[in-house]
Please model this.
Amino acid sequence: MTLSSIPLATSDLQISGGIRRSSTQICAPVMAETVDQMLLLMRKAKELGADLVEVRVDFLKNFNPRQDLEILIKQSPLPTLITYRPIWEGGQYDGDESQRQNALRVAVELGADYVDVELKVAHDFYNAIQGKKPEKVKIIVSSHNYQNTPSVEEIGDLVAKILSTGADIVKVATTALDIVDSARVFQVLVHSQVPMIGIVMGEKGLMSRILSAKFGGFLTFGSIEAGVISAPGQPTVTDLLDLYNFRQIGPDTKVHGVIGNPIGHSKSPHLYNGAFKSVNFNGIYLPLLVDNVANFLNTYSSPDFVGYSYTIPHKEAGFNCCDEIDPIAKEIGAISCMIRRPDGKLKGYNVDYLGAIAAIEEGLRASNGASNGSGSPLAGKLFVVMGAGGAGKALAFGGKEKGARVVVANRSYDKAKQLASKVGGEAISLAELENFHPEEGMILANTTSVGMKPKIENTPLPKHALKHYSLVFDAIYTPKLTRLLREAEESGATIVYGTEMFINQAFVQFEKFTGLPAPKQLIRDTLARNT
Model:
């Protein structure tokens, strides 16, 4: 099942960043052991900008339903959704079922705005209240699947089953085993004739929580504090509002993202979402934890899924999925940027080499006190590239184009040899690199992931080998100062941060995504704040 058939508006109107484009609400779960702690959290939720709170009374110690609910409902500064989740549906309550349902009936009677009732007991619950429900109280009938995400047909049947109970609002939460699982929930959500909450849990389901505003979800959940979550994969209220510009997402918002695995470290959403908002571009940029690139692209094939950045390990897989490839990207054999053209065709570009080579040249010019005269300061230099993957290829071809003598060092010698032969260079294994110094003043570029968060104590080359290099560049940008760069600087080399490559290629990608000039200073400032 793909998203190509979903009837979505595709207008590209640039409207003021202040306009709210969807009615999807942000609900902050409140979990605490005492009523007083809950009231504090409710006030915090309001300050953060949440629209309502989910009061998870199954977390309360010594819960006295009538007394506690009266305080929580009447004193909440925001509308309340009362949830008393039993252990058999992923909650904390492990007691008598009739007592639990009795507490939920008290919440209805006391005028909670919403009360969550699990599908398994919904018929019993409705029979017990016998239609005695204040008009303003809405019943959410919920189903949680912690194993997987069923087919569109099965989700549709589940929605029908929930509706048959008399539910005012349908809630379906499933679990993402793959990022494409969210598409099945979107498919049901966008066609739902009744208010529906559709959430796909887990890191691979993050897009379901953010794009619920695009596909018409009734609400999404955002945690009050990072890590204090009521379900796996929940973003914070602050991230929804400030990082993902949740209020500005609507049916015609264009979807972009960075495709990689792992992807949690990526700073790209901070850069592009802020930049999109600054020029009133109706777009969103997401971290996309993708296992299979072809499967992802085939699933999200609607015209509104328009642009992607590619990172480790998917640059070559992205290349193989393009309908058309920019000539330099074709030579490199890997892409770092993909655009869906208006005719639906996917075009690939490699912007890594532009960003990285420009950053290295700037570093060389600064250290030599040279001006931007004719010719590249890389010309004639011995240029050692560590790694022969997508970024390694980009650097090797970029170096060749600038007249450098390229040496490719890779864990697999065969892969190094393959790349070196394409750029007229030399190949060595990474093990040999430690003792490789045919001359002084060489240039080193690391494109491996050694030293990237969380394993920041690792380095691809021991410190004693770094004294032979005049400049060292590391493509890693989390952390900004890797162990390799720190030790290179201590050894007397000029260092160039991966952030410089990242910034240069971000300018190019922003312009490809939006057709507008990049707000360069804003992008630089944003990156400085987030590294």
